[in-house]
Specification:
- It is a single chain.
- With about 260 residues, the protein is α+β, with helices and mostly antiparallel strands.
- It has one domain.
- It is about 30% helix and about 10% strand.
- It has six helices and seven strands; from the N terminus they run H-H-H-H-H-E-E-E-E-E-E-E-H.
- The strands form two sheets. The protein has a five-stranded mixed β-sheet with strand order 5-3-4-6-7. It has a two-stranded antiparallel sheet with strand order 1-2.
- The longest helix has about 50 residues.
- About 5% of the residues have low confidence.
Length: about 260
């Protein structure tokens, strides 16, 4: 009778204590956590170059798009002024130019108002298109407002006073046909080391090769637009060409290529 009255809970306790392992908790071990971290790190290392390449490509596309928009503005100005091209002069010769401001001066490098004072701005209506998104130039933590400068042979007769070799300047849209609208460049992404005013100096007599220097931020090249409205990259083929042109030879292939699309006789 005593055997039948045993507490059934005792048998349950005995089975539980019979050596069966306790249920495992849901926590990760240290080794498992380290393995997961290692896998994530490896995947990130594999993806970062692709992401960086995509970002670089995006900046390049945006820069060329800005230059295309500025070329449209250039054409609209000429259409509204009976074929006369927007004025382009060095800052030392007046402020009535396509764009104003000297980026070598801290007070002007980040001043958006100077862009709005330029003669082309009524057709642009936004300051963002004057700057390449990959431009690294900053002053006191603020980005410079402009990355582009205009061909010194376009927009005034100023270069005729500096050159004795009979090269053409262009102040009317009809005159661009002499050089070919598809091969005459207008505005270029200029290197931050030489960019000052909106006037990109090209000395056809080789007196100062690369006094104004193309940017190198797009696969070692600069964005440039042309008189027919298209934009493309001007890639520097000589990787040793120094910004500023201090030691550039007149036989430098990049310099010769730039002169070929700058003007004609």
């Amino acid at each position: 009778m005593q055997q039948h009255c045993q507490n059934p809970n005792r048998r349950k306790v005995a089975r539980a204590a019979g050596g069966r392992p306790a249920a495992r908790s849901g926590a990760f071990t240290l080794i498992e956590v380290l393995v997961v971290i290692a896998i994530i790190t490896l995947l990130a290392a594999l993806m970062l170059p692709a992401l960086d390449k995509a970002k670089t490509r995006g900046h390049q596309i945006a820069c060329l798009n800005h230059l295309k928009q500025l070329a449209v503005c250039w054409h609209l100005y000429a259409a509204d002024h009976h074929g006369r091209l927007v004025e382009n002069l060095p800052a030392t010769h007046g402020t009535n130019s396509w764009v104003t401001g000297n980026l070598k001066l801290a007070a002007e490098a980040t001043n958006l108002a100077l862009l709005k004072h330029g003669k082309l701005f009524p057709y642009a209506s936004q300051t963002a298109i004057y700057r390449c998104p990959a431009d690294p130039a900053h002053t006191q933590g603020a980005p410079h407002v402009r990355s582009y400068a205009m061909n010194s042979w376009v927009g005034s007769r100023h270069m005729e006073n500096l050159s004795r070799k009979g090269f053409r300047t262009f102040v009317r849209d009809s005159e661009t046909a002499a050089a070919g609208a598809g091969t005459l460049w207008l505005m270029m992404d200029e290197h931050e080391a030489s960019l000052d005013d909106g006037w990109f100096l090209v000395t056809m007599d080789d007196s100062r090769p690369f006094a104004s220097f193309p940017a190198t931020r797009h696969q070692h090249g600069a964005g440039v637009n042309f008189a027919d409205g298209h934009a493309e990259l001007f890639k520097l083929r000589e990787t040793r060409t120094p910004p500023g042109g201090a030691h550039v030879s007149a036989s430098n292939t990049d310099w010769l290529r730039l002169k070929q699309i700058t003007t004609t006789r």
